[in-house]
Amino acid sequence: MLGGLQAVLRKAEAHATEKKIDPNALLQARLFPDMFPLLRQVQVASDFAKSVSARLAGVEVPKLDDNEQTFADLQVRIEAVLAFMRGLDVEQFADAAQREIITQAGTPKEKRFSGQSYLFNYGLPHFFFHTTTAYAILRHNGVEIGKKDYIGTY
Q1: What letter would DSSP give residue 22?
Q2: What is the set of domains in the chain, with CATH numbers?
Q3: Which of 95, 112, 114, 130 has the most crowded CB, counting CB atoms within 10 A?
């Protein structure tokens, strides 16, 4: 899915160039005023990819600065997350389904999950929400993308 997100962002940047649109207009576009803009949607989607993978592998979640401003910056961010994920060894996930995962998602109240519950009921839904919203923002703004772009290669 991150590969699909990379491809969609490349198409968005090319669209902005071709149509002489300020790239920031797309990067700051939202579906509704109370929703995150495209740039933040990509940051959050990549955060979920790295944090879910790290927690299930039993390693520390890598920190990213959230200082991206351009399409190129977002590509670098996604590449960093993909590199981190590729560096995880399959053996690190041996007991992931039963591993206790504790989060404090923006609140002082902690949530406790089994690894399986964390993945299926928390991590994946959030990841898909933000990748889908990034896609929807771009499609809504005229970027010629379709389902194959969203799905990416697998």
Answers
A1: -
A2: 2-151 (1.20.120.450)
A3: 130
| pLDDT tens figures, 31-49 | 999 999 999 999 999 999 9
For 59, the token pair is 């390693």
pLDDT digits (tens, 9 = 90+) for 67-78: 999 999 999 999
User: pTM for the whole thing?
Assistant: 0.93
Q: Helix axis angle, 71-86 relative to 38-57, nearest 10°?
A: 10
Q: Looking at the chain, how many residues does it have?
A: 154
- The beta-carbon contacts of 150-154 under 8 Å, at least 24 apart in sequence, are 150/4, 150/8, 151/1, 151/4, 152/1, 152/2, 152/3, 152/4, 152/5, 152/6, 152/7, 153/3, 153/4, 154/3
